[in-house]
């Protein structure tokens, strides 16, 4: 059983509807701002700003990146031979009972395998990865997955 961990994120407002997000853990050995991300209200909201990471993008990214890191661990433990992993993802924001909520995250992972015989196993490992993903298990949003497994040409 893994012990309890904390992950620290510091946000500082700069101007308008944007600020800078950094993590003290990620700054060690780097120039402090090297691992910072500019964040803002998305353009769909009043005074929102385009072309900057938003909480909605980061929420979607956390689900997607968790799928990838969980897949990498399970695939390695299962000795799955694969040569590629990518994942398109879409987070859906809706108004529910008068409040905004991220109601669904749609994941479209693509795994490239070396041999057709591993197709079913790759699909199984992806399904297992989604159900084991700690971020998916921590949120109320529905998480759906449309899997593609390709064989290396």
Automatic annotation (TrEMBL):
Source organism, top-level taxon: Bacteria
InterPro entries xrefs: KH_dom-like_a/b (IPR015946), OsmC/Ohr_fam (IPR003718), OsmC/Ohrsf (IPR036102), OsmC_Ohr_Peroxiredoxin (IPR052707)
Protein name, entry field: Osmotically inducible protein OsmC
Organism whose genome encodes this protein: Aequorivita aquimaris
Taxonomic lineage of the native organism: Bacteria, Pseudomonadati, Bacteroidota, Flavobacteriia, Flavobacteriales
